[in-house]
Amino acid sequence: MKQYLELCQRIVDEGVWVDNKRTGKRCLTVINADLSYDVENGIFPLVTTRKSFWKAAVAEMIGYLRGYSSAADFRRIGTKTWDANANKNAQWLANPHRKGVDDIGEAYGVVGRGWRTPEGQRIDLLAQIVDDLSQGIDNRGEILTFYNPGVFDRACLRPCMYSHHFSLLGDTLYLNSTQRSCDVPLGLNFNMVQAYFLLAIMAQITDHKPGKVFHKIVNAHIYADQLPLMQDVQLKRTPYPSPTFIINSNIKTLHDLESWVSLDDFKVEGYQHHQPIQYPFSV
Ligand SMILES: Nc1nc(=O)c2c([nH]1)NC[C@@H]1CN(c3ccc(C(=O)N[C@@H](CCC(=O)O)C(=O)O)cc3)CN21
Ligand SMILES: O=c1ccn([C@H]2C[C@H](O)[C@@H](COP(=O)(O)O)O2)c(=O)[nH]1
Q1: Which listed residue, 3, 89, 132, 161, has the most CB atoms within 10 A of its CB?
Q2: Residue ranges of the chain with per-residue pLDDT less than 50
Q3: Which residues are catalytic (predicted)?
Q4: Spatial distance between the Cα atoms of 48 and 56, rounded to a whole number of angstroms
């Protein structure tokens, strides 16, 4: 939580105004931030200076791991966060590759679970990584990437947290996650939870101890219409101690995650938080 607030404060103090063409808004921006999450000691990086809807964040990541391409599937598992990008962005609505209502296109898990080869085959990067790690193999390239420039025109958005690189040191699993673009008030509140969750669940299904996540963010920004709430409300609040995140221990395989797992299999204990803040969302 401290590192999150420090990044918010850094943007307020040192950020530079940058015009963003896609959203038509200005963003107060810094370049490069390195956050880390101590999964080994169970320090769950949940924002406490406003109420965080952590279940929606977990649902998003489960949707990515399942390779969802429809906002309707995301809704069914418990989050509406893809509705606007799927159905409200004029450029995407006019894109001939869009397959209709709720389609988000070839983004995130569609890429990670079905990487296109030149021969027209598909590679399931996630299944390969799970296989390797389960056998104690780290080939120094256990990378789940969602980033395929060749299909950007077939998606409503390019993936933001686009690469997850897993490493083994003995029986401990580590994760380096990289994010190209970060909406700090809204997106990062979710992305911290997702990176923590990803290491915790991958350690559990490959039978390793979780170590740390190292989360690299390149462009970290606050949209102009979010700034007053960040500066005058959220940054004025004192954080509470971190809560604990609990995963159903019956989840043992990737197949479990793909088939029967729901948000009821995850719990947060000891979550003390301030009042919610509704930040404006830019489509
Ligand atoms: N501008 C922008 N920021 C993002 O963070 C973002 C995108 N676009 N597009 C793709 C996904 C969708 N994400 C989202 C979308 C909505 C919320 C959101 O509205 N959050 C609210 C309420 C969440 C709820 O009720 O479940 C929040 O207060 O956190 C958060 C992340 C993250 N990503
Ligand atoms: O997981 C996510 C997904 C999206 N975001 C934010 C970052 C930007 O504000 C927008 C994406 O816009 P681009 O023009 O494609 O950069 O969504 C996030 O923070 N986290």
Answers
A1: 161
A2: none
A3: 160
A4: 16
